[in-house]
Design goal:
20 strands; globular; 16 helices; alpha+beta
Length: 477
């Protein structure tokens, strides 16, 4: 039997080049090593062929090329998924990273963005007009995976999830056909794409609704020593559900990084950090954030009026590209005392300085969308909590860091009601079921219609019903 690499021989690639505007890279060719690398440096896979698509025509060509040869494929947008779904071993990697055009229409407040656009690029384009949409908190995140999985961000309490601001998607299906999908043309598929991930096709472009934001907002981190974490987190538990919609709240516990907003004598010590972001009148924001700033005895308070673009990149330094990462997440209805105890104990047990526990306070506009409106599902308020291990490539204790994540995740499971799909890691079918619950049957029906052979399977996979054993093969590790 031929290997996948043998099936992508020089003659086949040469014929494809004649129809392809982008770059086709095979092992050993210039640019291949860089193209196969993604944000998570722990991902070390070698595709037989990398197709760096210059446009939708290229995507259509390589999908048909892969189908003709029964090749396994992966799809790279921003390449930020911790599980490395963007890269396939010994198969075809469909790379959208050249498709990064953003077109903003200020009068109607919409933006159209290519499938390879990064969050920072979308923000920079829209902020030229004082506009933004809800789209994550780390500027290197690809908009594709974030959008298709739901999309949390600083603006979500005021404007909903990213999928609530999605107007349309241009899609290439498993058959290599183009589709324009919106609420009128393909309502059921549009429902599934808003939370169902990359299971139904390759999203080559997104159209978003924009909102007046910035260019200056009120925000910045406040930090306390871990000894005050119980007080801070219990305050958030009570404060977040009643906070104004304009206030986004992100928080974390971690070892203090060498950040300019922290005193040097705190570096390497465990801390709890809250990052409030107020998307409204600055004076009103000062009043809303004041109770948080009066809490306990902070070691740092960096809340100030600042450009929205600056606030959107504040988390970048703590998540540097190329480090090794592993995470798992849980959705929690509240921060019970037991949950807070787990967070504090796990933070005390951190061995790798880039590791942390981070959470979003979910509420406001997110909760006012009907749970059946999108595939994201439940819209109750609460907290989305991620346990993230990050370590340097030369660190030999990777197994311990992974075990640290899994121990914390297991301790949180009794309190969990699920997970957002774009936070899934290697939980397999059990994770997919936790993310989608009763919506999984409706998503499976879409999979049967648009991808019955599971061509798009390197993802948080919704298996087609006619593929027996798929869920067992995806079992939790």
């Amino acid at each position: 039997m031929k290997t996948q690499t043998e099936m992508i021989d020089a003659k086949a690639v040469g014929a494809l080049r004649g129809r392809f505007r982008g770059a086709l890279l095979r092992q050993g060719e210039e640019g291949y090593e860089e193209a196969r690398r993604v944000w998570n440096g722990a991902i070390d896979r070698r595709p037989a062929l990398i197709a760096r698509c210059a446009g939708t025509d290229d995507v259509v060509e390589v999908v048909r090329f892969a189908q003709e040869r029964d090749l396994p494929v992966s799809v790279r947008g921003g390449g930020h998924a911790v599980a490395g779904h963007a890269v396939v071993d010994d198969g075809l990697m469909i790379d959208l990273s050249l498709m990064r055009a953003v077109l903003v229409d200020p009068p109607v407040r919409t933006a159209r963005a290519g499938g390879g656009v990064l969050l920072g690029e979308l923000d920079r384009a829209t902020q030229r007009f004082g506009l933004a949409t809800v789209a994550g908190i780390i500027s290197e995140t690809g908009i594709g995976g974030l959008t298709l999985g739901g999309g949390l961000g600083h603006l979500m309490r005021k404007h909903g999830l990213t999928v609530d601001n999605l107007l349309s998607i241009d899609l290439v299906t498993a058959d290599g056909e183009r589709m324009h999908v919106d609420a009128e043309t393909e309502p059921e598929l549009f429902w599934g794409l808003r939370g169902g991930g990359g299971n139904f096709g390759i999203a080559t472009a997104f159209e978003y609704r924009l909102h007046p934001v910035g260019p200056v907002v009120l925000g910045g981190p406040i930090a306390w020593p871990l000894e005050q974490a119980g007080e801070v987190l219990r305050f958030l538990r009570d404060y977040a559900p009643e906070a104004p919609d304009e206030l986004g709240i992100v928080f974390s516990t971690r070892m203090a990084p060498p950040a300019p907003f922290l005193p040097p004598d705190q570096f390497g010590k465990p801390v709890v950090v809250v990052l409030p972001v107020w998307a409204g009148d600055v004076a009103e924001g000062q009043k809303a954030i004041a109770p948080l700033r009066r809490l306990g005895i902070p070691i740092a308070d960096f809340v100030r009026a600042a450009p929205y673009l600056f606030v959107q990149s504040l988390m970048d330094a703590g998540n540097p590209r190329g480090m090794h990462y592993y995470w798992r997440s849980q959705r929690l209805p509240t921060l019970t005392d037991d949950v807070i105890d787990v967070m504090i104990a796990q933070t005390d047990a951190i061995e790798a300085p880039l590791s942390y526990i981070a959470g979003f306070a979910v509420g406001g506009a997110v909760t006012r969308v009907h749970p059946d409106a999108t595939a994201v599902g439940p819209r109750e308020g609460g907290f989305e909590l991620s346990i993230v291990a990050g370590w340097r490539p030369e660190d030999s204790a990777a197994d311990r860091h992974v075990a640290w994540v899994r121990e914390g995740w297991e301790a949180l499971r009794p309190h969990s009601t699920g997970v957002f799909s774009h936070f899934l890691s290697d939980e397999g079918a059990a994770g997919v079921e936790a993310a989608y619950g009763k919506r999984l049957g409706r998503l499976t029906a879409l999979k049967d219609r648009y991808d019955p052979t599971n061509f798009f399977r390197l993802n948080a996979n919704v298996a087609p019903s006619r593929e027996p054993g798929q869920r067992e093969r995806n079992g939790v590790r």
